Structure formats: structure tokens, C-alpha cells
Structure of Peroxynitrite isomerase:
Amino acid sequence: MLEPVRENPYPDSYVLGEGPELHPWLKPALPLLGSWHGRGRGGYPTLAEDFRYEQEITFGHDGRPFLHYEARAWLVDESGTVVRPSGREVGWWRVTAEGYLEALIAHPTGIVETYVGQVSGAEIEMATEDVARTPLAKEVTGSRRRYTVHDGELTIVQELEAMGQPMQQHLVAQLRLREV
Ligand code: HEM
């Protein structure tokens, strides 16, 4: 018989003041903490049509100087009716005292991106250092992201260099913090 195992003593926290104390290096990224929910629009020159989506994003921490990140999106039509699941990604955002940021983001589409960027005030900018792809993945060669928190709203603009196209916008979304 196996000994009973205790509960994980280091659960992630998504709310400031609950769970482990926030690592001081994460202070610049503090506005991101929590669970966000909102809507976006996207398109790309290789696609026949633009699209709309809804998205939920969570940023949590376990007291160490990195954020656990997860984002899930699903397509909706013009009237807001749910169409099907879409982009999904998980990762780690590593932040230093100076607000330097390194992120690792993995996609179920066979792509892993590493980013470097900067957290300054309520704005985060990052660009890919590397994009690794499995043999079946689509050709993505680079990406840039900007996250801005203003008046309780998180705006995300994402540019993509893929399918032989130059870097240009694929996604823009606005989200609000959701109580957990
Ligand atoms: C909110 C997240 C995202 C949503 C809602 C989204 C949505 C879409 C949609 C609807 C398409 C058209 C094909 C289809 O119907 O599935 C598409 C294509 C594509 N997306 Fe995204 N996407 C997201 C994130 C990403 C990310 C993070 C990347 C890169 C890592 C990416 C790269 C691509 C590529 C390469 C294509 C294919 C273009 C082509 O086949 O010509 N997408 N996306």
C-alpha cells in the first residue's frame, strides 16, 4: 500500500493576497495576475475570411519569479454564437527585477515559441527569439505581442510572420478581469 500523499503545499495563486506571497520581481507584471475573459478579432492574408473569437486567459504564480500562463479561445459568429474551439496555449513567463521578460509558450499545433521582452508600467512588449516546430506544424517563423492594461481592460495585439508572409497582425483582443 502506498502512503497517503499530502495536498500540494504550493498551489498556484491567481489573486493578490491569497496563497504564496508574490515574488518581488513579479511586481511589474502584477496587473496581469488573475483570470481574464473577453473578445477578439483576427485575420491573415492567407485566410479567406476574418474571424471573431472569445478568450479566457489566466496568469498565476507559486511564489517564485515566474507566471504560469494559459489561454484558450473559441470562435464565435457575427451574432456571438459559439462556432468551435480555436487557439490554445500554455507557458511560463519569467520576469527579472528590472522588468526583463522571457516567455516560453507551447501550442497544440506543434509549435513552441520563446520570447524576450520588457514589462514597463502597464505595457508588455515581446518578440520571438526562436520558434520550434514539429514536422506537421504550419510554417510560423516569428511573432510579436503587446499586452496593455488600461482602466481594468487588457488589450492584446499579436503579430505573426507565417506561411511566407511578412510580420503583420493576426489577432487583437480586449479582456476584463473575472472574479475567481
Ligand atoms: C486567440 C488565438 C488564436 C485564434 C482565435 C486563431 C484563429 C485562427 C483561425 C480561425 C485560423 C484559420 C484556420 C482555422 O479556421 O483554424 C487561423 C490560422 C492560423 N493561425 Fe491562428 N489563431 C490564434 C492564435 C495563433 C497563434 C498563437 C499562432 C502562431 C503560433 C497562429 C498561427 C496561425 C497560422 C500559421 C494559421 C494558418 C494560416 C494558413 O493556413 O494560411 N494562430 N488562426
Observations:
- The chain has a mean pLDDT of 95.
- The pocket of protoporphyrin IX containing FE is lined by residues 42, 44, 46-47, 51, 53, 55, 73, 75, 86-87, 89, 107, 111, 138, 140, 143, 160, 162-163, 170-171 (CB under 6 Å).
